[in-house]
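Hi there. Long-time user, first ticket. I'm pasting a complex I've been working with (about 612 residues overall). I'd like to know whether the download I got is complete or cut off, because the file seemed smaller than I expected. Thanks.
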Amino acid sequence: MELLIALAIGAMFGIGIFQLLRRNVIRSAIGLIIISNAINLFLLSAGAYEGVAVAYLDAVGQRSDALPQVLVLTAIVISMGGFATVLAMLYVISARYKTSDLDDVKRLRH
Amino acid sequence: MLDEHLVLLPIVIPLMGAAVGLVLHNHPKWQRLVTWLAITISLSFTGLLMWRVFGVQETIVLFVGGWAAPAGITLVADPLSALMAFMSQLVLWGGITYGLGCKDKCARYPTFFPLFLTLAVGLTGTMLTGDLFNLFVFIELLVISGTVLTALSDDHFGPEAALKYFYISLFAAIFLLLASGSLYVSYGTLNMADLAQRIAADPNQPLLGMAAAALMATFMIKSAVVPFHFWQPDFHTAAPTPVHAVLSSVVVKVGIYGFIRMTTLLFIDYSHTIQTVLLVMGAFGVFFGGLGAVGTYDAKRMLAYSTLGQLGFILVGIGWGTPLALAAALIYAFNHSLIKAAMLMLAGSVGSRAPVKTANFDKITGLGKVTLPAGILFLLGGMALAGLPPTNGFISKFTLFQSGVEAEAYTSLAVIGVGSLITLVYVGRAFQRIWWEPMPEGVEPKPYGDRLIAPAILICLCIILGLWGWPLLQTTTQVTIWLSSPDHYIQAVLDTAVLAAH
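Hi, the file is complete. Here it is re-exported in full:
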């Protein structure tokens, strides 16, 4: 389980960063969403190994730690606000610059 | 009981002001009044907090909701936090006062001032919080407010600047979450005092290095330290004047605060490595920022590059790491906030006189002729930025160089000594372009521009702190005594927790 989660986090990071660096505005926004979900998974897995023992205490028979789940909830809410902002800005940008290519969004550089 | 709630007020009052401001969105005059009152009251309570921490010499710790540390949410006003929070609130007050008198269309947008107040909440909260996850929450609040304020800008390219800022800041937030996750796995706590204690007891956890690196990346992006700076000049060219006056002066100090906490509290065992990294990047930043500022086409962009250089000086101070150097870095940070906010406001107010609002040197050549008071203030501010007496910039540069001599770091001292001369070049050039050269034919400046009250007050403070510098010197000395041992902070938080539990 530990290995599976580790691989999943790694894969999501990879896909997320690849998407984030794409030129299409929507793809790059989706990349951000995938990366932040990878982080949420990482925080969740910080709470428990195999869903039973607390990570640091290394004790058997205890319930898994609830704090990381709270952290994940907060992080999800905050990232939702963030993505709403990103999508709104991308909407304005694609209307003003008449493009969906992020490489064309560079009029502040001279 | 009520005493410890004092630390909550600088966070709660602007938040309430923002809520009331949103309710009053149909009544702009009342909204402006509420905003200004909220920030003024919160500034005065931060001043009271300052007095309690430095005058009465007690650290105020509040466990929100009554759950004692390390379990609950902790707000801590120790000397470092109190000084940084006061600095932030002072400049935010200046920014809002400028916003009230500015002619930008975006300042009439109904959510402009409420967003400004949530920016204040985020910034003050970042300085006062006692655990890593709340640091993340407050930083996100800060970033989202700052982004929306920038995207509202009158400048046509505002959303582009905001997008760049937001993408890179979201990355910083992701790194911060990575760091808190790794530290939580290794040590089972996120409270900074508890964490410092447990890291010192067991510094060989495998994820510790990763956490330290991720935190470094976060704070470097926040402070726009040179290899992480690329969003910053673009961002400041397009942001509305009151917003970037705040963002370029105090929001970049979040990273400075983080570095000081990292080297004196969290990662004591690795502080030498961190300091070396900061020293190299700082010295590089002094040159990069200075040369970048000399080569720009826009007054605001020039000041944004200048921030990179000035932050370099502060990082070099933290990198030397001696008590005197830390005190010098804090003095530098405080003074730079005042100077840079005032300078950006002055550049913006001259730009607001141009037929089409801009700060491009070619468009505002000679435009300063119509606002002589702004010219005098800009000259004084420029002297402060370059570090000439009788301004506070002289005191900050003097203490920094003195601490360098004491630390016997002559190589880095020579580097920043040469770097500081560049400041004189670009400030002089800007003054010459805007106020000295004749106005080209056919340009008709607007009769009214942004009000000059806020920059005038900030520049007055700069002069006062330059002529009468010992209060700041004494305060920062008190901070460095407090920072000399991490036990002070740990005991202050955890002992109060033991008391609260009984």
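A couple of notes from our side: Chain A has a mean pLDDT of 82. The radius of gyration of chain A is 18 Å.
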